[in-house]
Amino acid sequence: MAGYRVKLTREGRVAILSLARPDALNAIDRAMCDAIVSVLDRLEEDGDCSVLMIAGEGRAFCAGADLKHMRALAGESLRRFIERTWIVGERIERSPLLSIAAVQGFALGGGAELALACDMRLCESTAMFGFPEMTLGSVPGSGAMQRLHRLVGPARALELVVEGKRMDGNRAGEIGLVNRVVGHGEAFDAALAWARDLSERPSEAIRYAKTCMRLPADGAVAPMVQGMVSSICQSGAGYRANAGQFLSGKDSR
Question: Where would you find the membrane-spanning parts of this chain (predicted)?
Answer without folding.
Answer: none
